[in-house]
Amino acid sequence: MRLEPINLFDYEARARPLLSHNNWEFIEAGAMDEITTARNRSAFEDITLRPRFLIDATERKIATTVLGEAISFPVMISPTDGHGLAYSEAECATARGAGMSKTLMMCSTSSHCSLEEIAAAATGPLWFQLSHRGYGPTENLVQRAEAAGYKAIVLTIDAPIPTPKERDIRNRFVRPGEMGNFREFLKQTADTGDDVDPPNWEMPSAPPLTWQDLEWLRSLTNLPIVFKGVRTAEDARLALEHGANAIMVSTHGGRRMDTTMSSIEALPEIVTATAGRVEIYVDSGVRRGSDVLKALALGATAVSVGRPLYWGLAVNGAEGVHHMLELLREEFNRAMAYCGQNSVDDLEERLLNIPREWGPVRTENDIVERLPF
Amino acid sequence: MRLEPINLFDYEARARPLLSHNNWEFIEAGAMDEITTARNRSAFEDITLRPRFLIDATERKIATTVLGEAISFPVMISPTDGHGLAYSEAECATARGAGMSKTLMMCSTSSHCSLEEIAAAATGPLWFQLSHRGYGPTENLVQRAEAAGYKAIVLTIDAPIPTPKERDIRNRFVRPGEMGNFREFLKQTADTGDDVDPPNWEMPSAPPLTWQDLEWLRSLTNLPIVFKGVRTAEDARLALEHGANAIMVSTHGGRRMDTTMSSIEALPEIVTATAGRVEIYVDSGVRRGSDVLKALALGATAVSVGRPLYWGLAVNGAEGVHHMLELLREEFNRAMAYCGQNSVDDLEERLLNIPREWGPVRTENDIVERLPF
Amino acid sequence: MRLEPINLFDYEARARPLLSHNNWEFIEAGAMDEITTARNRSAFEDITLRPRFLIDATERKIATTVLGEAISFPVMISPTDGHGLAYSEAECATARGAGMSKTLMMCSTSSHCSLEEIAAAATGPLWFQLSHRGYGPTENLVQRAEAAGYKAIVLTIDAPIPTPKERDIRNRFVRPGEMGNFREFLKQTADTGDDVDPPNWEMPSAPPLTWQDLEWLRSLTNLPIVFKGVRTAEDARLALEHGANAIMVSTHGGRRMDTTMSSIEALPEIVTATAGRVEIYVDSGVRRGSDVLKALALGATAVSVGRPLYWGLAVNGAEGVHHMLELLREEFNRAMAYCGQNSVDDLEERLLNIPREWGPVRTENDIVERLPF
Amino acid sequence: MRLEPINLFDYEARARPLLSHNNWEFIEAGAMDEITTARNRSAFEDITLRPRFLIDATERKIATTVLGEAISFPVMISPTDGHGLAYSEAECATARGAGMSKTLMMCSTSSHCSLEEIAAAATGPLWFQLSHRGYGPTENLVQRAEAAGYKAIVLTIDAPIPTPKERDIRNRFVRPGEMGNFREFLKQTADTGDDVDPPNWEMPSAPPLTWQDLEWLRSLTNLPIVFKGVRTAEDARLALEHGANAIMVSTHGGRRMDTTMSSIEALPEIVTATAGRVEIYVDSGVRRGSDVLKALALGATAVSVGRPLYWGLAVNGAEGVHHMLELLREEFNRAMAYCGQNSVDDLEERLLNIPREWGPVRTENDIVERLPF
After folding, report:
1. Helices (H), B110-247
2. Best residue in B232, B234, B356 for a mutation probing chain A (most A CBs within 10 Å)
3. H helix runs in chain D, sequence order
4. I need a labelling partner for B158 at 20 to 30 A (CA). Which of A83, B103, B252, D177 fits?
5. Do C56 and A210 count as a contact with CB atoms less than 8 A apart?
6. D309, D302, D292: which is closest to D351 by C-alpha?
7. Residues of A in contact with B360 (CB under 8 A)
8. C135 touching D, CB under 8 A?
9. Residue D366: inside a domain, yes or no?
10. Residue C89 contacts residue A241 (beta carbons within 8 Å)
């Protein structure tokens, strides 16, 4: 009998031959020279754990809440473009997989399934990731997300312009399928005679969303808003001032802008800047359960995974997503046990040694120590 | 005539073709991505010696004592699982090899030979490594070890849960042979009608041993207790408070939890935290005589070796273990001579340059400089 | 249809098979072990961006001026030896390519075309790079440059002696063609009966130009003088004292002296030393638009590119140079957008994280922090 | 026509096929894992030059003196074992090569030619390297060296015990030829009936030379004594106290003890400790003219080369040694020119940037900053 995948890298290796070259490259690629994508991984590996022993940590509490939503462990599904790239049932399968693992899925504006279809398939909580593509579409999407039972809006701020990855350009990559969230909208605007350009996978809005628009965005919904893509203390402070309910530190998997720091390197200054006033999440580079512990010890409430969901989907649909998450759960449990931790609520930075090269950083107003020492 | 192995890496290279693939991988593998296993080696190599000359160091004292036991040089045998993996006579051969080199062997709970068999074969001092697998088995093992003449209990604290290595999972590795220490115990409990699960190689105890159990453990024996697996100043302080007679800094060869620091990187903070109140030993990554000097200069009383004993056994049984140890002795002697040192009792940190990247670390209570400058 | 090159490395890859081995190696090679050449690239990659979001940066001002000359974006063409190595029309084609991109070209003393020919072909501003080869030739060149409409003299200071690259020596590389700027001069001096050695590609002047000669150089022309090749705070201060109108930080692409720092590493101390009194430019290693932003954020007014112009020329003549520049423009625009920047005039060092290893440096008078913190 | 070697690495590459495998390996090998040997090279490469321009450095003074002996540039020949390994005329050829370059050769106790033969062949100054092999041989050697016109005794202190390199052991390397310096001595002692063991290549003396013996050594000769192999501030201070006339910082090419620092890394603390009271020389890893400048800028008076002399000998006898030295001279001249230096007497540390990782070191008495900042 063939062995099941035993870690996320196994899923990656098994997904590769199951996907077309172009789809595979779309999933794997990072921006330009892929320096940030590589750094997202190496930075996690450079942090070391300070394990603690002779503590009974068999009754571990790893369930937590994110903006009040219960999740069974602090790993969520990041919003990523059309999951039909990896599996025919697309986001509906992902949502079922996330639900089996009792965790939350963030659904992308650029999904193959519509947000309503995903909501119908889902058995766990959902947040809606918003790529602003103009006032009309945004209003439409936000109101539909709220109506469909999504619990938060995840506003992507780190994609101000279209920046196709170089591997995709070389492959003359054409995304398969249509954008599920715009099928009805296009028909509707056609009916009303409004002059709305059909959104495509890449096109950002003109004019782009700015800090000045956030009051308007707030007015559209009562849902909490998560700012995704924050990478500096400066933007973290601005997000707080503009009513952010949570912040997601992300490099977009290194897929948009190269040579930025990794997410986990940026996390400490953002934790310092926000001083506990909002929940912080992290994605980009999470592949091992110990990464989850590291992020939480540095102040995150939860992490999420992007590329691995495609791998899980490609290998085994909803079951693959579920199993991929369960591997992370098992590894995270193990890391908790080795660090003698009984609860995700107690993880502290003293569980880690941070590379000394991670010196202080210089922000707009001041020099910020990465860690408070 | 074929050349004898001239260093430990030779033993490693020669052992490989003599062992089955699965046994070989069991011995070599580290946990997960094997980052800590690699780091155990690179960290030793990154420390540099400060050699001192024109000193007559021909009358070197390299013999020392560990908890009062005389050993001919400060290298011991670490406790490792069933030596039958490498050689038919298993731990009995290892014990004879250690005895030939007049050093101490730590015998694992998970040995192929029983502790009594090893004691009968041994010609040097023995300590018994205890993996707690429940109150009954522990009481049984500790009392038998004391009765059989073992001089200390080496309590492994850094294996709170079973964590099979990924290479072993891929190999569907099944450990050959039975656990020597439980043959009689199982028969005995069967006779009394007690309901005791047969221990297996991997199963940890439920409930696990905690700091609260140490008074009970103390009550079982008059033997000194060595805490093996301490990796932080915090646990070192707790070990002292709970009556540790010695501390062994170990990463378990990087075989249990990945991305922890290497042992030699952790040593300084533990030396600082214990301030000379107990002896400190180190294993994980020792392959050269200069490593021994480095560990002692940083405050250890002795080091021990794990994987290399399998290599010695595989190549030449007890003689192989003995010769492997003698190579380390020769190299250590050489390092002593180059550093102008006449006695292991005089080694000080000023014999080393520590990489600047090894900055201060942040412990529970405070920031601890790795070295006192 | 074949894909157009999508970044500068594509141009490099496509140029290779189009050039003879010797010409290719002449272009690519660095001095000796090529350590500085490699460092010019890695240092840029080690700096990370601090992206800023939710700012409308669609109306970006990337046009700037260099010594009053308008350029459409802060990337210029560095002076490099005979462009006929890569393309038959040589510098005339380069000048047309630069003009199409509305930027400035610095023309080398060692060009294949004469400075007058280049001026006739050019549609954008030109500066004349001066390699001092004796008082007579320098006077001749400077006056001709001024007469031909060149707007500044770029005095190369970092080539005091001939230092052929080792790859060129191995190839017994013979530069094709004649030096365009000396055709008339040689004829003219022959006519006057003056005893002037015919300049060759490599021969520096005897005696070499020194700080003492700068007053004389100043007296030859009203054009501003840019000091090219400054790599230390000390020389930057001296350049100011000797009336430099601008400074160009350059390692000569690592082609002359090995194991100096990269240009971008040297930039901060030079910015500190000159305290805003003159414009600073940087070349050596610029390959990505984000490099441009990094240099400007550290205090440069503009950057320029050397080897890439050969690649553009080889692939497609003037159009290739133009397209190569447009790729940089597009990438720079993208980096500006991701950093939320509307104007090249506002770029500040707080947009970057600098590797901590870039510690302070020790100059003649003092220790200079690389960055003012 | 075949190209002449253009740098020292060319000599290395060309020597290889000319030497037997075992002789080649003897020359190239370092101790054990060869970490120090590699570090000797990488440490030089990690230091960067701070070039200075617009200075007329055409009248460079690169001649210097070492203990009053004039040498034409600050590169000498290190003492190394029997040169017959590389060339039949052995040290006599080396001496002629050094003389052609007007520099000094240090002749090894373990030479193939006798010291008298070398003196007869030499046209430049000679120092005699002394490996103490007992009081009788040392007295004999020192007095013969003085009689033969050697100008200093270079006392090797960093080889307290025999430590054959592992590559030599694997090769069962047997040194060809006999030790020239002991032919007469053995015959002489045989004649007098004294019981003297025939010295061999490896055998150190028993008892070894110590600081206490230095008064005795001093009493044997009026020649100045250079302490070769000093690697710490502590031993540098002791050498001064024991009347050292000069100190040679050396790792023995990394051939004796592994994982010590490189020579160039150790130099600064030794310069600080000796505070200008004696001349300092450096060998181990010098391969480029810029290395010479780096060593001198850090406080050395001269450097010397070991392995490269074998390469030069193997390729072309005395001419090869001479040419190898001339390549270094040319490169050193070039480095001087690029750093705007007119005299080896003026080189200062501010010409360099030292990697920040080279932090302070901890010596016996105190923490010593590597550089005085």
Report:
1. 115-121, 135-147, 166-170, 183-192, 214-220, 233-241
2. B232
3. 8-15, 21-28, 35-46, 90-100, 115-121, 135-147, 166-170, 183-192, 214-220, 233-241, 263-274, 289-297, 307-338
4. B103
5. yes
6. D292
7. 373
8. no
9. no
10. no
The answer for residues whose C-beta is within 8 angstroms of residue B27's C-beta and 6 or more apart is B15, B19, B85, B86, B307, B310, B311
Q: Which of A10, A353, A354, A369 would you mutate first to test chain B, the one with the most B CBs within 10 A? A: A353
Q: Which residues pair with D226 in a beta bridge?
A: D154, D246
Angle at B181 between CA B177 and CA B183, to 5 degrees: 70
| Spans of chain A below 50 pLDDT | 372-373
- Pick among A217, A226, A362, A367 to test the C interface (most C CBs inside 10 A): A362
Please tell me if residue B55 touches chain D, with a CB cutoff of 8 Å.
Answer: yes
- Tokens 């601008």, located at residue: C246
Gap between the Cα atoms of D78 and D98, Å rounded: 11
Catalytic (active site) residue D252: yes
Q: Is A356 on the interface with C (CB under 8 A)?
A: yes
* Paired strand residues for B353: B48
Locate D137 and state its tokens.
Answer: 């041989």
321-340 in chain D: CB under 8 A from chain C: 331, 334-335, 337-338, 340
**Residue B116 is part of which domain span?**
8-199+223-351
- The answer to whether position A366 is within a domain reads no
Residue-wise pLDDT tens digits, D139-175: 999 999 999 999 999 999 999 998 899 999 999 999 9
Contact present, B343 and B61 (Cβ < 8 Å): yes
Touching partners of C (3+ C-beta pairs < 8 Å): A, D
- Residue D368 forms part of a structural domain: no
Other beta carbons within 10 angstroms of residue C165's beta carbon come to: 22
State both tokens at B17: 């073709």
The answer to whether C94 and C83 are in contact (CB under 8 A) is yes
Name the minimum distance, in Å, from the CA of B323 to any CA of chain D: 17
Q: Which residue of B has its CA nearest to D204?
A: B58
Nearest CA in chain B to A347: B364
Identify the CATH number of the domain in which residue A157 sits: 3.20.20.70
CB atoms A49 and B160 under 8 Å = no
What's the pLDDT tens digit per position in C265-291?
Answer: 999 999 999 999 999 999 999 999 999
State the burial class of residue D187 (Cβ atoms within 10 Å of its Cβ: 0-12, 13-18, 19+). exposed
- Domain for residue B3, yes or no? no
**Is A347 near chain C, with CB under 8 Å?**
no
Residue C318, H or E segment: helix C307-338
The three-state secondary structure class of A283 is coil
CA-based nearest residue to B357, from A335, D193, A354: A354
Please count the structural domains in chain B. 1
The residue count of chain C comes to 373
Kindly tell me if the per-residue pLDDT of B189 is higher than 90: no
Tell me whether residues C207 and D355 touch, CB distance under 8 A: no
A329 CB neighbours in chain B (<8 A) are: none
Q: What b-and-e string marks burial along A138-177, b requiring 16 or more CB atoms within 10 Å of the CB?
A: bebbbebbbebebbbbbbbbbbbbebbbbbbeebebebee
- Going from the C-alpha of D356 to that of each of B362, C222, D232, D247, the distances in angstroms are 22, 44, 20, 26
pLDDT beyond 50 at D372: no
The span from the CA of B228 to the CA of B159, in Å, is 10
pLDDT tens readout for residues B198-214: 667 766 666 889 999 99
pTM here is 0.96
| DSSP state, residue C4 | P
Q: Which residue of B has its CA nearest to D158?
A: B53
Name chain A contacts of B367, Cβ cutoff 8 Å.
Answer: 373
Please give the pLDDT value at position A372: 46
CB contact under 8 A, B356 and D361: no
